[in-house]
Design brief:
The complex is a heterodimer of chains A (about 350) and B (about 350).
Chain A lengths: L1 H12 L4 H24 L6 H26 L7 H18 L4 H25 L4 H20 L9 H8 L10 H18 L1 H11 L1 H6 L4 H27 L10 H11 L11 H20 L4 H40 L9
Chain B lengths: L1 H6 L7 H22 L15 E6 L6 H17 L1 E5 L11 H9 L4 E4 L8 H9 L3 E5 L10 E4 L3 H16 L3 E7 L5 H16 L6 E8 L4 H14 L3 E6 L2 H12 L8 E4 L3 H9 L5 E4 L2 H17 L9 E3 L5 E3 L5 E3 L4 E4 L9
Parallel strand pairs in B: 1-2, 1-3, 3-4, 4-5, 5-13, 6-7, 6-8, 8-9
Antiparallel strand pairs in B: 10-14, 11-12
Helix pairs in contact in B: 3-11, 4-5, 6-7, 8-9
Classes of the chains: A mainly alpha (about 350), B alpha/beta (about 350).
Chain lengths: ~350, ~350
């Protein structure tokens, strides 16, 4: 009996839960609907400027949402991402100002900040065994504090103008920023890791049950450690991006972004309890929040009302699947109960 | 556990097909984002029908000081013949203003009036706005001069710094430890004032016995400023005075002092709004503080925008423009136009002001 169960579990995890794809699809349809409605009703919305401005605005969140999705699917969380971006920006500013290195080398060294920060988070979580929520609340403050120590209340702004222009440059007349190519590559990498590798499938198992995951041969500690390296590195990439995009390195770059990222990831159908979520859904979630915010601003919705709208959307998106799951569960149990009562052979397998 | 096992069974049958559908939907949406833009909406000017438009971008919304500046700005905009709007973030961080600059650009606003949270971070976006034809007026907190046409400053930064030092020195009798409770660690104008204060403390023999022991940052958040004040007083038992060059900070510090044992013993001054500080002046927590009339700042900024748009000025040194009730204003070096000197508020005159 237990053998049958465990093989069934493994088999099931090699596919994607059906309910989830439903959520993805709904998010993506909603996104398309919002785009269509906004194009017709919101003045100035339908234009190449929108594509450029909107994408540049969501790129930081889109990027960090990728490793964040993996982390949350594994039933962990990383709240320190925005602070890692801030620390990276501070380090990048100081290196550029003081080291005399080539900008390319400065960028590589800055991204290494994310490796160190991620490894620090990962060490405390996997080796010391502390909960990721507690650890990353701590490092959220710690890394931001370090950023202030590194660069103080200074700003470094004399980055090469060409780099800023490159970050803001568009692909021809489409309005799509050139850096989107790079972003799409990163999205693709994370989509492949999550959906097409044993490592990625293992993350769903991790999110469902750490013990079960360990049983089926997943090295829980190692997997989690790499996840936090992942969020660290991508956060640092975002720190570099923000620095170049703003043409300004400072300790407060990216402040508060962690919550926007987590909100978008959850909206995209990733369960905060782990075990559920897909990359297409997360991309849809990020774009949906981005497009909605952008359109509502252009439609002159006051900023205070706007956060109420995005907040409510998030609550609905988190609550709705739980409610439907609960309802389905009840129905299934009821049906099962009947069947079990009807036939004399017990066992859920027959369901 | 039983429930969980159950739900695993009926779910994996059509996963592949669904996945395909989801990817297809994503691809469609991306294509839509990419091409939906091709369906260009014609570039029509603002609702006013030929009216020129002006957008005010304060550092953050829902800040009492900002509200007064914007009130003056809207009056000025009306008199100068603009259709005005206010765009701004809810929190004052470096990059939070950028989406609003981009929005103003997209709406083809004629004049953008901005108080920069970060002098450089807003630069590339302002550059794009200028390329789209907007005139840029900085007010309250300057941007890098490369990115704006003119900067409207209420007062000379040094005067603002010095008047606060003068007041604190008078109140603590010219000697003792003082501390500064500022806004964010990167706030442009606060840092400039603090720099002038530090220089003056070092160089002016009148202040030789005054020692600046700490600078703390309340981030223009009332709770954080309140806690920082509390922290200052417990860390520095000999503290004689606090300077808070930000309206949020001084109000929070006054609130803390007024209910603590330090009331009347530790002097507090800085830049405050008369309406917020009135009760603390009346109850003796605060003797005197300084500020300019912020409404004038917005008012002049609107007229400067008008003059730039009409082409009567370019923001060059020596340019003169009409600023309605405030008469003619001359642009100084680096495209900076000064509105007027700071005012001291105390028990005698505070009731004359309502902002």
């Amino acid at each position: 009996m237990s053998e049958i169960l465990s093989t069934a579990v493994v088999k099931q995890r090699s596919g994607l839960p059906k309910r989830l794809l439903g959520h993805d699809a709904i998010i993506i349809y909603t996104l398309i609907l919002v785009i269509i409605i906004a194009s017709f009703t919101v003045k100035f919305f339908a234009g190449p400027l929108t594509v450029g401005f909107l994408l540049i605005q969501v790129i930081p969140i889109l990027l960090i949402a990728m490793p964040m999705a993996l982390v949350i699917i594994s039933e962990e969380i990383d709240l320190s991402v925005a602070s890692i971006a801030g620390l990276t920006s501070a380090v990048m500013g100081v290196l550029w100002r003081d080291s005399g290195w080539d900008i390319g080398f400065v960028i590589v060294a800055s991204i290494f900040v994310g490796v160190i920060c991620g490894a620090f988070n990962g060490f405390l979580i996997t080796v010391v065994g502390l909960p990721s929520l507690a650890v990353t609340i701590g490092t959220l403050a710690l890394f931001r504090g370090l950023a202030l120590v590194v660069i103080g209340d200074q700003k470094v702004a004399n980055f090469p103008k060409e780099l800023n222009q490159f970050v803001l440059s568009k692909i021809g007349a489409t309005g799509i920023p050139v850096v989107m190519i790079f972003v799409v590559v990163i999205i693709a990498i994370f989509a492949i890791i999550l959906h097409f590798t044993p490592f990625g499938r293992g993350l769903y198992a991790l999110g469902h049950s750490k013990e079960a995951a360990a049983f089926v041969g997943i090295r829980v500690g190692v997997a989690k450690f790499w996840l936090f390296i992942g969020t660290g590195v991508v956060s640092s990439i975002v720190g570099v991006f923000l620095t170049l995009r703003l043409a300004s390195a400072g300790p407060d770059n990216g402040t508060g972004m962690e919550l926007s990222v987590i909100a978008a990831v959850l909206l995209g159908g990733v369960s905060i309890f782990g075990g559920r979520g897909t990359i297409p859904g997360v991309v849809g979630g990020v774009l949906l929040i981005g497009v909605l915010t952008y359109a509502l601003r252009l439609a002159k919705v006051p900023e205070t009302a706007l956060i109420i709208v995005t907040g409510s959307l998030l609550v609905i998106s988190v609550v709705a699947p739980s409610v439907t799951a609960w309802a389905r569960e009840r129905m299934r149990l009821a049906r099962l109960h009947k069947e079990v009562q009807g036939s004399s052979t017990p066992g859920p397998i027959s369901a | 556990m039983k429930g969980k096992t159950m739900e695993l069974f009926s779910t994996f049958r059509s996963a592949k097909g669904r996945r395909g559908a989801a990817f297809a939907a994503l691809a469609v949406s991306v294509a839509l984002v990419a091409t939906g833009c091709a369906a260009d909406s014609p570039a029509t000017p603002g609702e006013g029908g030929g009216d020129s438009t002006i957008a005010f971008l304060p550092k953050q919304l829902n800040n009492p000081y900002t509200d007064v500046v914007l009130g003056g700005g809207e009056d000025g905009a009306k008199e100068a013949g603009f259709t005005s709007q206010v765009l701004g973030p809810l929190e004052a961080s470096a990059s939070a203003q950028i989406p609003f600059i981009e929005q103003a650009t997209q709406e083809q606003t004629n004049v953008i009036v901005i108080a920069a949270n970060d002098p450089d971070a807003v630069g590339p976006s302002l550059q794009a706005a200028r390329e789209a034809g907007a005139k840029i007026v900085a007010f309250d907190s300057d941007t890098n001069p490369d990115y704006r046409d003119i900067f409207i400053s209420q007062v000379v930064a040094k005067d603002v710094a010095l008047i606060q030092l003068e007041i604190i020195s008078e109140q603590i009798g010219g000697e003792g430890e003082i501390a500064i409770l500022s806004a964010t660690a990167t706030a442009t104008n606060q840092n400039e004032w603090i720099k002038f204060m530090e220089e003056e403390l070092d160089s002016n023999p009148d202040y030789a016995n005054i020692k600046l022991v700490a600078k703390v940052y309340g981030d223009d958040d009332a709770d954080k400023s309140f806690q920082e004040t509390q922290g200052l007083l417990s860390s520095y038992p000999n503290l004689k005075g606090i300077i808070s060059p930000t309206t949020v900070g001084i109000a929070a510090a006054a609130k803390y002092l007024s209910t603590s044992d330090y009331k009347g013993k530790v002097a507090l001054t800085g830049l405050g709004l008369p309406n917020e500080m009135r009760e603390f002046v009346k109850d003796g927590t605060v003797t005197e503080f300084a500020l300019w009339d912020p409404a004038q700042l917005g008012y002049v900024a609107a007229f400067a925008g008008k003059a730039l748009l009409d082409g009567t000025i370019t923001g060059a040194e020596g340019d003169k423009f009409d600023a309605g009730d405030l008469g003619e204003i001359t642009v100084g070096a680096n495209g900076v136009a000064i509105v007027g000197p700071p005012t001291r508020f105390n028990a005698e005159n505070i009731d004359d002001y309502d902002f």
